[in-house]
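Tutorial, part two.
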Amino acid sequence: MNLREIIQISFRSLVANKLRTILTTLGIVIGVFAVILLVSIGSGLQAYITSEISSLGSNLIFVIPGRVGGARTPGGVVSNKLLLSDSRLLQQRLKNSADIGAVVQQLAALKYKNKTDKGVSILGATANYPQVVKTDIVKGIFFSLGQERSGEKVAIAGQTIVTNLFNGTNPIGQKISVAGEKYTIIGTLAKKGALFGIDQDNTIIIPITAAQRQFGITNVNTIYVSAKKSTLVATVKNDVSKILLKRLTEDDFTLETQESTLSTINNITNILSIALGGIAAISLLVGGIGIMNIMLVSVTERTKEIGLRKAIGAKRSDILRQFLLESVILSLTGGSLGIALGVGASLILSNFFVSQVTPWSIFIAFGFSVLVGVVFGMAPAIRASRLSPIEALRYE
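Running the prediction step on this input gives:
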């Protein structure tokens, strides 16, 4: 028998048992659908985080308190010895190669007239913060160096603040209570959206000196160093370390670059994507077992047919190829439907959550569905091909 005849016979057999074919295919459909969708979520999350970090500036170096994996206080808290004076010293020494800024962070309540917004992120920043960490001002201005040094009570509001307290109207010039202290809004920030469920627009930026004075803070949470050229990042990082080590020890701070941060995050999200895909692939194995079970039942039901075909000249290889082909058709059909549904669901989900379909996930899901058809279809096909024509014809 030629391949065309075997394909025709296989399709006729599958169509003759429509319900069984549909139910068998459903297991593969669900498995491939789950693989595509879950891997898309993992890939979308990775792309989103990478985009958010890259948007801060490609030449950025973070100076954070404590050494990663280093000394901690008995309570497990990192000891913070970074000071605003460290930031100013770095700016003075590295003014030709980098811009340096610093921030402190607090959570506090805001109040405007009879409206209150609790749990707002208060960011005390240096005047050059928009230049060091890419920050867009959509209305008004950022505070000046003079306002920073004097600790003037001025503020830049995020879009959530504008919406919640000012109903979306222009807040420039309005006075707002920040943890009980009055600040004048002089600018508003561009909308950023949420990251990991945290609203990045529920933020207000005030001069770092005003924040330190109001909240009794002497240290800074982070020092940002932005190299003026990408080729200077390694040199600047080395210079920052040398300058800080004159006052601090290696256990007192850690330097992180955009590249190292992205590398760490990419490793985590890659593992997440693989884990999600692995979990979803279990359903593909279940679908494969379903195919094998149905094909074994089919061999038993069609024993006489197999005996008759062998009696009139069908070779063992013809029977093997027929049943193996039926199994592969089931898995390919299920895989194709699963891919279509997975891609469609991912595109719909992208309107509400980070989701990104990757070609490699489609390739792997499709290839795995074919593999499932071959592997789990082999045992029933071999069993069918080994049936004795005489015994098969006598089977009841």
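The longest strand covers residues 98-112. In part three we will examine how such features are distributed along the chain.
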